[in-house]
Amino acid sequence: MPFGIPFALIDIVLIVHVIKTGRFYPWFFVILFLPGIGAAIYIALELVPEWTGSAKGRKAWRNFATALDPSGRYRRLVDELGVVDTIANRAALAEECLKIGKFDEALEQYVAILEKPLGDEPAYMLGRALAEFGLGRFADASATLEGLKHRWPYYNSADGHLLYARSLEAVGRNEEALENYEAVGRYFPGAEPRVRQAQLLARLGRIGEAKALADDILRTLSRAPDHVRRRQKDWFAEARRIAAA
Known about the structure:
The chain is built from 15 helices and no strands. By secondary structure, the chain is mainly α. Among the domains are: 4-68, no CATH class; 190-245, no CATH class. The protein is 78% helix and 0% strand. The mean pLDDT is 87.
């Protein structure tokens, strides 16, 4: 293997990392125009401080390791489950399967967990719905979430509520979807539900309502701190597109 290839691969991985973590400027240009040296500076000034001791650092390291070997954690969790079959090990594997798009395997694990005497928990039922949604089984996902709400009426999950609204939209229950997008948008930590509500309004031909909602989203995001706007940039862009259509 040519000597420079490993360093080029590291540069590519770090460029992807700076884009995904909202650090595009100036690190994208530092790594791109200073091959090798730029990567070392980025690791020293940004990654090492995160990796040393804190929970945030450990998460940053896991994300970086995943970028280098996307299936490494999955293989390790499969091995651990093969050694000790516990709910915790199955749940960890199921969660990892969701992250890497192995929805059929995630569903298999969640179904197995829910059938165990101590596995009857709302979080695992939500995981099952996520797997069903990932497989395109939208009616099953909405039914699972309705069952969850019936059995655990006081269980609250913003992500689960958003998933329910998306499932309703996917099966054509549009008015119910709009109601749920509006409801979850009141407390969801981000603009996604409201933008999806505006998208659905536009698809239903309710252009005036869609534009008004998009304008309101833009006003709200324009007053948010810079780090919030960076995290929400894709939804910001979509709201801008709807408002200008």
